Amino acid sequence: MSQKNTINKVDLVVIIDTSSSLRDDAATISNVAEQVIENVTESYPCDLEITWLGIEGIWHGTPFSRTLRNYLINSGVNESELTGLKVSRSNGRNDPARGDGAGAIADACNHFDWRLGANRAIFYLGELGISSDNESLDLDQWEKAIAAAKSALVRVHSYRKSAGDNVAISEQTGGLSFIHPLDDQGWSSALLSVVAASFTPESYLGIDKYSPSFELICPQPSLGENQVETVAIAVTNKYSNITFRDVTVFLSAVTIDERTPVPNLPDEIPPILLQPNTPIYFGDIDPYNPDIEPVPTATIRPIQIETRGSISGEFWLNIDYSYSAEFSVKKQETVLV
């Protein structure tokens, strides 16, 4: 039985300022992005999707091959709903719109096609942070971006190339902040840190060792040709403080050994038929009470195995099962008052 939780989903949107000062950073990220993604896959149990977008521009030869505006419009967003500054071709590479981080973050938070159930994260890469020395900064727009991130439950991480104050949106949304130029190793570490901070660590309790005991009760050690044999599956609870709820068994397959399936007969006729072929419901299996019974009592359900044709011998019956475990804990503590 698989005891794995649903893999954590993470949607990470990396948004970069496309004014000329970030050219080197875009190139450095391009050098390390593929290796970082491999490291993420090996290190973190998450279903990660990274989308690389430029603010009103792109960086050729890097992952930033689409603009945020075009991505959102192609996803079905009406352009009139976007609040980020729109580039004017006459301004060239240093058009203020290319560094409008506040507008870009707000638009991504409000309109990105986040997957259902995914943790949402933005990694914003810009030239300047929030600082009173930055006269071009519209603090009202940053407040709107912070509000949009909080409303959309997006954690915003940030990289600021120039010296100055931290980017407040990261502080207020639980994100990480990085400052000053980074080399290949620095960018690898930063990207891995952002991913690690973007997914929810599993608080999953592995209960494989706390499971019911299953036994096949079979009067015959092997099956003959064209034989119908009634056997039984027995489930017992050997624990005195655990109730196993809704125990259900699914007859999976009959195999020659632990893995090898029994080959079909001519015309693809199944060689062995199991009944019932629906899930076998055992219900709740109560805790074992050693004061009342010397050994745990088994709950038993019959099943029928029919061999066809010339099939005979010893076989393996594979089953899948599901249940939930309810723990009963009694402790006594002395509390100082």
TrEMBL record:
It comes from the Bacteria. This is VWFA domain-containing protein. It comes from Limnospira platensis NIES-46.
